[in-house]
Amino acid sequence: METLLIVDDDVSLLETLKMHFEEIEQDGQPRYQVATATSAAAGLRAAQEAMPSVVILDMMLPDRTGLEIIEEMKGLCGDARIILVTAYHDMETTIRAMKAGAFDYIHKPFPDPAALDLVVERALEYRQLSRRADEVHRENAAARLGDIVGTSPLMQQLVKEIGKVTGSHATVLITGESGTGKELIARVIHNYSYDEPRPFIGINCSAIVDTLLESELFGHEKGAFTGATAGKPGKFELAEDGTVFLDEIGDMSLMLQAKLLRVLQEREFERVGGVKRIKLRARVIAATHRALVEEVEAGRFREDLYQRLKVITLQIPPLRERREDIPPLVKHLLERINEKVHKRVTRVPGEVMERLTRLPWRGNVRELENVLTRAVVLAPGDVLRGDDLPALESTTPAPDAGRNAPPAAGAMFAAPAEDDASLIPTLEEAERQLIARAMTVTKGHKGRTCQILGISRPTLERKLQKYGLAQGQSPQVHTFPVKDAS
């Protein structure tokens, strides 16, 4: 559901438009949630509260003009598309409106509601395309060589090996514990291997059931299986002459391992249900946190596929083996986190940095980023507080520690022992606790909560109702450990 804000001092028109948009459905569900305002001041307040996707803004309002507030409106509701409407037909105002950043400029009275519907839908489409472009930009930006932070001997050696790898298109196997940054390394290799942009297509082999993974990799033809109402290209086809990144390949079934081996040997594949041979033009980079030598010995991974994959092998060291890299890594991550949650936590006291360097970091860089994110969100000023970090003992339980003991205070993002399944919350419980904590930090400000959690206002409203966190309720917030999902 998209949130639509309509700002117009014509109350009759306002109610008509509200009813019109609220009656529109998509897949049997309401398409829009509509907020309204009759003045510029009320419109700005509504924009901050509702975080709309599209704003229909009247040019002439009682207190200010639409042109006067368009910049403020854009600042309050981010990437919302703003459609200005007016009863006046003059070229100068149209030019000024578009120059000010309006998505479109339409005139009253509206000749056909469907015409307005079309403009709103087009605004949503462009907003989605813009978000996807921003996402691609962030993905590419996150794969610069400068984002491989560390000057330790282990990292210096890894960077040298990456430099050698980018000079060829040989298959690469990246190994390392969960959270060490295997996908980042793969993206760096990809970006530095080509002079012009090419597709980077990734897939997590452990996140898709075996019956669907084959279709995801190779694609399928119409009618290949129940539900295949149209043909669909797979990852190998979409990658064209770029890179296919197979993450957690150690979790792939033996049946698919055999098919992948044939593809790597013959450099050709077929869609599921198809007969046409498609040339594999992409480079293959695989990654795993498993020790594939041991998997081969146990009969869970094909030795011939392992030999085919490890043409070039890169081993990423765990964070605990390069503790001298933690201070620069903390600085780097804080810059990224501050930008994401709109805060300026830049100061790290010496005792806090010392504590960060001593933590075991079983979840590696991913765990460090999670811990820092939580600490930044909770920090009242520009100083990273030690109170918001996990206790040293919270991530290093004694061998005889009770399985049902509660997690230590502040250990919200600390990874439990691998066999300590009793401390892993359900996804719903984890989500409920995060939302409750975010609402506490923002003192119930829903717009700010949406920004921190990266969700829309309607989504937040639904989840508040679902988890009983609506206004007036004060659920007890507990900390909990989160197991590394990768």
TrEMBL record:
Superkingdom assignment: Bacteria
Segments for region (Disordered): 387-409
Database matches in Pfam families: AAA_lid_14, HTH_8, Response_reg, Sigma54_activat
Every Sigma-54 factor interaction domain range: 148-377
Keyword terms of this UniProt record: ATP-binding, Nucleotide-binding, Phosphoprotein, Transcription, Transcription regulation
SMART domains per the UniProt record, alphabetical: AAA, REC
List of residues that carry 4-aspartylphosphate: D58
Sample GO molecular function, one term: sequence-specific DNA binding
UniProt domain Response regulatory: residue ranges: 3-123
One record GO biological process: phosphorelay signal transduction system
Identification of the protein by name: Response regulator of zinc sigma-54-dependent two-component system
Organism: Pseudomyxococcus hansupus
